[in-house]
Amino acid sequence: MEPLYNTYPVAIENSLTGEKEAFIPVNAGAVGMYVCGPTVYSDVHLGNARTFTSFDLIFRYLKHLGYKVRYVRNITDVGHLENDADSGEDKIAKKARLEQLEPMEIVQRYTVDFHNVMARLGALPPSIEPTATGHIVEQISMVQAILDRGWAYESNGSVYFDVEAYNKEGGDYGILSGRKMDELQAGSRALDGQDEKRNPADFALWKKASPAHIMRWPSPWGDGFPGWHLECSAMSTKYLGEEFDIHGGGMDLKFPHHECEIAQNKACTNHGGAKYWMHANMLTLNGKRMSKSTGNTILPGELFSGNNDLLAKAFSPSVVRFFMMQAHYSSVLDFSNEALLAAEKGHDKLLSAWSSLEGACAKGGQGFDVDTWKRKCYEAMSDNFNSPILIAHLFEAVKFINAGEGNLAISPDELTALRNTFSAMVFDILGLQGGSDSSAHKDALDKAMDLVIELRAQARNNKDWSTADLIRDQLKEAGIQLNDGPEGTSYSI
RNA sequence: GGUUCCGUGGCCGAGUGGCUAGGCACUGGUCUGCAAAACCAGCUACAGCGGUUCGAGUCCGCUCGGAACCUCCA
């Protein structure tokens, strides 16, 4: 059978070229994707989660199309300096000092938190999740290779990438972000510790560790630790090769992080790494991006528990995910309680339509063009992963399903196709989670509810409206909604 | 100051020059003992000013407003 990726070829908006391009993998049928993961020194906030949820959507869709995807997402567990100056402090060491913990305890704690949050949001684990500290050897040899080529220099125990030398000999530092060297120099601020560098645009490949610095490794240039940009170059090359397909990350990493990665890769391998660069946009709160350092954040845990002054109530992880999926990954998305409430209603409507669809019969007829609808769903996703358009199409199907009241005017084959595609889109691709009650609990609840509904039906037959309404109102307070229909009463939670 | 991007109806949010995005909210109707849900119908729009075009939310210019990056950050 023809793989789905041939039927619905993918186009990707490539940050490197600024164009939407046909996606052609380096190796046919396989995709190598690298996404810059979090620095694990504090709880992952909702903005972080959005980026990884966006790439989870992309990962899921590419897999669904039949690609063999290797998805690499790193954990940054080397602290890195708080600013580019020598006076800066290692974030993880700082947190460790504040909390009186070993640095790797900090790393472990927040890595576990990150995994928990992403799992609740329905994100699949990546194929490989390498750590920076686990790839010091690879990073040191990369530094050496760049030194050997003459595009780096050692200064006081640290090694810096020589941007000017790189660009003079054919390098294209600035290709991703559109920045020019002279503009960078004009715009750069006078920072402390810049005197080790020949040029303000130069960036650290290896930093000398001060005597108090805890996380340190021996190197040909003395004890130190790798520069922030280096780990991604080293690990993407190691696991995906010198040329791979997709490199993703948050928009805020475009410059300088990804720009530096490209320069490092080209310096070592003559290849820039990824063919397609993708940048997920920011989640804003009060019109400003969420940021750990400014404290303008909301944590996923607060959302799931409702424990935040900005929230009227708790929201399920699936609702939060649906909220994110309603916006395109490349657009800024603004967070608000109102937007979440609206998303929750839409989400519930979508999932309750799925329940109806599961139990629906096909009565024949041409009530809905399933083939065309299915094609439109795939085309939306293949067009740069346009989940909002996909959701709009899903609601077309919802309207048809609800109007049919369990008896849909399509053929049995079409019903099967509708179910399969609906389920694939909602659960496999968007990654939403239905009522995930264990089936034993569900059976017990169903039986109890059948009894309550029967008792209420008797009251209604006796025109005992006060009893009937009491049952309905009390159940509603408990979070269970009764729906009276022509064929009896059903309930939803 | 530089780079990139955005400004869509009450709110969120798609729109890759020409045909209803969608969700939420609201109004009227159908259904119901009353509700709810669902369905049907309606309702508000493209920041402003010019230009290109037979035709612009979509292209170009200017103005105003906002964001990200230029320093660690998804």
Could you explain the architecture of this structure?
With 493 residues, the protein is α/β, with parallel strands linked by helices. It has three domains: 12-280, 3-Layer(aba) Sandwich (Rossmann fold); 285-429, Orthogonal Bundle (Isoleucyl-tRNA Synthetase, Domain 1); 439-492, no CATH class. Helix content is 46%, strand content 15%. The protein has a four-stranded parallel beta sheet with strand order 4-3-9-10. Strands 5-6-7-8 form a four-stranded antiparallel beta sheet. Strand 11 and strand 12 (288-289) form a beta hairpin. Helix 5 crosses helix 8 (230-240), helix 12 packs antiparallel against helix 15 (412-429) and helix 13 (370-382) runs parallel beside helix 15. It binds one RNA strand of 74 nucleotides through helix 2, helix 7, helix 9, strand 12 and helix 12.
Topology:
Blueprint (H helix, E strand, L loop, with lengths): L3 H4 L3 E4 L4 E4 L7 E6 L10 H19 L3 E6 L17 H9 L3 H18 L15 H14 L2 E4 L2 E4 L1 H6 L12 H7 L15 E6 L15 E3 L3 H11 L2 E8 L3 H16 L3 E8 L2 E3 L2 E2 L10 H6 L11 H9 L7 E3 L1 H23 L1 E2 L7 H13 L4 H18 L2 E2 L3 H18 L9 H23 L3 H13 L3 E5 L2 E5 L1
Parallel strand pairs: 3-4, 3-9, 9-10, 11-13, 14-15
Antiparallel strand pairs: 1-2, 5-6, 6-7, 7-8, 11-12, 16-17
The structure holds one RNA strand of 74 nucleotides.
Count of DSSP strands: 17
Q: Could you give the order of strands across the largest sheet?
A: 4-3-9-10
Task: Give me the CATH superfamily of the largest domain.
Answer: HUPs
- Tell me, what is the CATH class of the largest domain? Alpha Beta
Low-confidence segments? 186-192
The outline comes out as: elongated
Class per helix and strand makeup: alpha/beta
Count, helices: 17
Number of domains: 3
- Average pLDDT over all residues: 90
Specify the helix fraction band. 40-55%
Reported CATH architecture of the largest domain: 3-Layer(aba) Sandwich
Beta-strand percentage? 15-25%
